[in-house]
Write a structure and sequence with these properties.
60 residues; mainly alpha
């Protein structure tokens, strides 16, 4: 009864054993993520500065 399940388990283990960590790709994704966060935070800061300048000009 259990002999039917053994080939599937072995196949799955063989498949997972072929997956390797790709350090270069992970570093690249980390750099891209950090740059994206910096871009978003810089845009939010710039928006606040520009809105503040517009409010000051409107008060004059």
């Amino acid at each position: 009864m259990f002999s039917r399940f053994v080939p599937k388990i072995r196949q799955a283990l063989t498949f997972f054993a072929t997956i390797q960590n790709d350090g270069v790709a992970m570093k690249t994704l980390a750099v891209i993520s950090i740059l994206a966060l910096l871009t978003i935070s810089g845009a939010a800061y710039t928006d606040q500065v520009l809105i503040g300048e517009q409010a000051m000009q409107g008060a004059n």
